[in-house]
Amino acid sequence: MSPSKVSTIKFDEFFNVIDGKNRSGKDKHQGINPVSGEKLWDLPVATQQDVDDAVVAAEKAFQKWRYSEMSERKKLLKKMKDHYMSYADEITELLIKETGKPRQFAAFEAKGVAGWFDHHDTLDLPEEKVEDDEKVITTRYTPLGVVGAIIPWNFPIVLSLGKIIPAILTGNTIICKPSPFTPYTCLKIVELLQEVTEPGMIQVVGGSDALGPMLTAHPGISKISFTGSIATGKKIMAACAPTLKRVTLELGGNDASIVLPDVDVKKVAPELVMGAFQNSGQVCVATKRIYIHEDIYKEMLDAMVEFTKSVKVGDPESGSLLGPIQNQMQFEKVKEMFADTKNKGYKFAVGSPDVASGKGYFIQPTIIDNPPNDSRIIQEEPFGPIVPTQPWSDEEEVIKRANNSLSGLGACVWGNDLERAEKIAKRLEAGSVFVNSWEKPTPQALFGGHKESGIGGEWGKEGLKAFTNPHVIHSYKMK
Ligand code: NAD
């Protein structure tokens, strides 16, 4: 194992990685570049045999890794970080190809993930002791075994390494399954990590949606760490029940943003727009409903419209702020939301009711002015660059409106009166509430949803515990 960059990694050939080796396969599939619509490189479709072999290798590696000390694990993570970062430019190029993200944001994701390594280096799960006259009770946090990581297409790097890092730090081994829409970065990251890790510790299998159920059903896998839609999350939970696998489910959201009347409109308007439209709205914690106090409603909406008109949408090299929708399936879903909004006669404050068809899955950011509460655009997560605004006047009522959702992932409150803003924040039913910022998940804090937005959470110290079994020893003193 060499930590240096002298390696055989090629960035135009892709493999599943099982037991430390690249593995090809009979059947192939390809991702699509959403900017051009062109097919990208061939990828092998993993089979049940590939999954079975990966589980055997992961179990074998686990038998050694489970007993490693925290210091050894951190040393390995440091090596992994250095090795990964030496390829961050190449990985950025792959991310641009598979997602169409503007270059600056692709680089931000590919390089910013270093922060996940760095923060985890500061975390520990020390033993906890309680003692009385007759006994000492010691709680330790022991690894679970083989973790299956099921990953969506919107942030393929952060959501792969964001599972790999805590799994390895807690003494587990891990098998990743990227989304069929964005497999390239995950496959290549796992491949290059083989140069600094033992076979079986970190593996990857890619293919169709049929692969997920092979992981959730597998008796050799102890936990599924899933990020994706609520609908798939429910299927995963059901599929994990027969083997009582641990599950962490990071699911969709319908985040509300409440804007108090005392804000500086000019400063906050661009922030609200970016909170809604970052990554073209394809973010689980994007702002998806904006409630603006009636005293500043018109002024704020006008300022948001003006800023939105200045947002450049285009290909990754054009200096654009927003790229395309990542795949055709999602493009069609978002177009359907536009069609429903148009057909119901809701008011487009900015953006066109008719999504232009042309090369690439591009959609101009769009704001819908005061649609009714029961509209689809208020009730559903569009996962695209379209957001509704509504006025409010009564604080109690707007808190109820914000909470009136089956989702509870994130929320925001904007106000100069911090005490008032935080008081409202405490009453919002969501896993992460941001005051005077749009939603910015960080490795420093647990990230997870309330209600149908998920079960459990990842990142931060609590997130680390989700990769462990508490193990309690009650040790009695001999009389
Ligand atoms: P998705 O649920 O369609 O797919 C996610 C992953 O699950 C993919 O790898 C897919 O192949 C796999 N999968 C599909 N069916 C499966 C099954 N039956 N069993 C096991 N695995 C299966 O989600 P998506 O379209 O890739 O991502 C978009 C959704 O993800 C949005 O709803 C978004 O809000 C959510 N999301 C949530 C978070 C979060 O942290 N809470 C982050 C990003 C995205």
Automatic annotation (TrEMBL):
It comes from the Eukaryota. GO terms for molecular function: aldehyde dehydrogenase (NAD+) activity. It is an enzyme of class 1 (oxidoreductase). Residues 27-471 form the Aldehyde dehydrogenase domain. Gene3D superfamilies: Aldehyde Dehydrogenase, Chain A, domain 1 (3.40.605.10), Aldehyde Dehydrogenase, Chain A, domain 2 (3.40.309.10). It catalyses: an aldehyde + NAD(+) + H2O = a carboxylate + NADH + 2 H(+). Keywords: Oxidoreductase. Its EC number is 1.2.1.3. Signal peptide: none annotated. Coiled coil: none annotated. The active site is at 250. InterPro entries: Ald_DH/histidinol_DH, Ald_DH_C, Ald_DH_CS_CYS, Ald_DH_CS_GLU, Ald_DH_N, Aldehyde_DH_dom, LUC3-like. Belongs to the aldehyde dehydrogenase family. This is aldehyde dehydrogenase (NAD(+)). It comes from Saxophila tyrrhenica.
